[in-house]
Amino acid sequence: MSPSTTPRTPTAPPVDRTAGGAARRRRRGPRTWLAVLPLLAFTGLCFGLPLGAIAFGAVTRSDPASGATALTGEHLARSLQGPYLDSLIGSVQLSALTALIGGVLGVVIAQAVVTSGSAGLRGATLTASGVLANFGGVPLAFAFIATAGISGVVTRLADLGGLGWNLYSFTGLTVVYLYFLTPLMVLVIAPALDGLRPQWREAAQNSGATAGQFWRHVGLPVLAPSLLGGFVLLFGTAFAAHATAAALVGGSVPLVTLKIADALSGNVLTGQENVALALGLDMILIAGLVMAVYLPLQRRSARWLR
Amino acid sequence: MAAMTPTAPHAPAGVPGADTARPAPRPEPRRAGPPRPRIWRGAVLALAGAYFLVPLVASFVFTVHVPGRGISFEAYTGLLAADGFTRSLLLSLGLAAATIALSLLLAVPALIAVRIGSPRLRPVVEVVCMLPLVVPPIALVTGITTVLRWGPDHLSRTPLYQTFLAVQDERFPVVLVLAYTVLALPFVHRSLDAGLRAVDVPTLVEAARSCGAGWPHVVLRVLLPNLRASLAGAAFLTLALVLGEFTIASLLGFRPFAVWIVSISGAQARMSVAVSILSLLITWLLLLALSRAGAAPASTATAATTSRKES
C-alpha cells in the first residue's frame, strides 16, 4: 500500500491549490474507502456475528456435559419436518399471496396518483404511505382487532361474523398484511412510474400504438424490474413479519416466525433453540434466494429510471 | 381502447396546408383523453381511502364507545397515569435517537465516499446495507441471543464480559440500538442513495475543493444541506421503525413502547387500541413536520437544478 501512496502525497498538496486538473487527481488522492470502513466493521460485528451464530448453531450440537461440539444435520432436518415444515409453507404461501395482491393494488394506486398530476395529492399519498408502510406490528394488530375482531366495530355493524368472517385466520391475516404492504408498494413503485416519461407515451401514440400496446412493449418492460423488485420487497416484508401475527393470531395460523418465537421463549426443551436457529437459517435461505433474483433486476431498472 | 380511436381521424385530416395553417388543434386529442381515467382514478382512490381509513375510524370508535354505556374518553385520559407508559415511551424515544444518530453516522460518510472516490465499493456497500432486508428480525434475534449467551458461557473471566453486561443494561439496552441500526440500514441507504442520486456530488465536491474548502466543510456545508430531505426521510423511517419494533425487544426481554402496549392489552383492551391510534397520529405529525422541513429547501434545490439544465 505504501509504495503506491508515497509518491503521490508529496506532490499533491502544492499542486492542488493551483490547477483544476490537480483537483481531479486529488479526488482520487484521499483514501475515501476509509469512510466505508466503519459501516463495514459495524455490519460485520452486529450483523455478521449473529448470522454466523445462526449458521454455526444450526449445523452443530454441543454436548452440555463435555462441551464438545459436533457437526450435525439433525436440527436442519427437524426444521423441515412436521409442524415446522407446515409453518414454513404457511409463511411462504401467505407472503406470496399478500405480496402479489399488495403489489397489484400498490401499482394501481400509485398510477392513479402519479397520473393525476396533482402535487398535493401526490405528496399526501406518499406521506400517508410512508406512515402506513411502517404501521405494521402491534398497533396494526390492535387496530384490526378493534375493527374486525370478534367484538370489533365493523364486525358488529356489518354482522361480519354471520358472513363467516374470521380475523384470526389466513384470510384475516391477508387483509391485515395488505394494510402495510400496499403502501409499501406505492412508495417503491411511484418513482418508477414517474420515470415513465409522458414523451414515450406520446411517441407510442403518434406511431399509432394503442394503450395496450404501449404498456406491453414500452411500459411493462421498463417497469418490469421495479415491479419484480417491489414484489420481492413485499414478499420479504410479509415473510419476516412477526409482531402483527403474534399479537393477532397467536398459534392458529402456522407461521414460521411464530414457531421460532415459541422455540426461543417458551418451552425450553434441549435442542429446541438450535431448531429455532435452523428455522432462522431456513428463512434466511428462502429470502436470500428471492433476493438473488432481485439484485440483477434492480441494476437493470436503473438504466431507464434515472 | 375506444377512446384512442378519435385521435386517428385527426392525423389523416392534417392535410399539409391545413396543418401549417392551424397548429392549435394539436393539444386537443390529449385533452379529450382525461375524463375516462378520471373516473377510474377517483374510484381507485376512494376504495383505497376507505380501506385505509375504516380501521382507523373504527379503532377510534372502539376506544371511546363502550357498548351499553355510551361515549367515554377514559382510555385516553387514563394514559399518563398508566403504569409504565411514560417509562416505555421515553425508552423508545431514546433508543430511536441513538439509532438515528448511529445509522446516519455510519451510512452518510460511506455513501458519499462511494459516490466520489470509491465507486468500486458501491456494490459492496449496497449489498451490505440491503442484506438486513433478507434477514428477518426474528432470525436476527435468534442469532443475537446466541451471541449474548457467549458472554456468560465463555467470556466471564475477560473484560469483554463487562461489555456484554453493559450492552444489555435494562435502563438503556445498547444491544437494541445496534440491532435497530442493522434493521434501519436498508431504509437509510435507500433514502440517502436517492438523495445523492439527485445531486451531482463529484461536481459539487470538486467545486468546493477548488475553492479551498476542507473535507469537513465540504461534507457539512455543501453536501449535507443538499441531502436535507433524504436525511429527514431516513431519520423518520428509523424513528417509526424503532417506535413500533416489538419482535427483538420482546424476545430479548426489554420493555419499550410496543412491548408495553401488548403487555397491557389483556387487562385494558381499550387503552391498548387508544395507544395504537396515538402512536400512529404522533408518527404522522412527525413525518409531516419533517417532510415540510426537508421539502422546502429540496424543492428550491430541484427548481434550481432544473432551471440550470434548461438554461
Automatic annotation (TrEMBL), chain A:
Location, primary (coarse class): membrane
Domain ABC transmembrane type-1: 88-294
Any one Gene Ontology BP term: transmembrane transport
Protein's organism: Streptomyces subrutilus
InterPro entries: MetI-like, MetI-like_sf
Cell location: Cell membrane
GO cellular component: plasma membrane
One Pfam short name: BPD_transp_1
Keyword Transmembrane helix part of the UniProt annotation: yes
Biased composition (Low complexity): 1-22
Membrane-spanning parts: 33-56, 94-114, 126-150, 170-193, 275-297
Membrane-topology annotation of the record: Multi-pass membrane protein
UniProt keyword list: Cell membrane, Membrane, Transmembrane, Transmembrane helix, Transport
Family stated for the protein in its record: Belongs to the binding-protein-dependent transport system permease family. CysTW subfamily.
PANTHER family: INNER MEMBRANE ABC TRANSPORTER PERMEASE PROTEIN YDCU-RELATED (PTHR42929:SF1), INNER MEMBRANE ABC TRANSPORTER PERMEASE PROTEIN YDCU-RELATED-RELATED (PTHR42929)
Region feature (Disordered): 1-26
Protein name (record): ABC transporter permease
TrEMBL record, chain B:
Origin: domain of life: Bacteria
Coiled-coil intervals: none
Its membrane topology: Multi-pass membrane protein
Keywords assigned by UniProt, alphabetized: Cell inner membrane, Cell membrane, Membrane, Transmembrane, Transmembrane helix, Transport
Pfam families: BPD_transp_1 (PF00528)
GO cellular component, one term: plasma membrane
Chain intervals for the UniProt region annotation (Disordered): 1-35
UniProt xrefs under InterPro entries: MetI-like, MetI-like_sf
Domain spans labelled ABC transmembrane type-1: 89-290
Family: Belongs to the binding-protein-dependent transport system permease family.
Protein name per the record: ABC transmembrane type-1 domain-containing protein
Source organism per UniProt: Streptomyces subrutilus
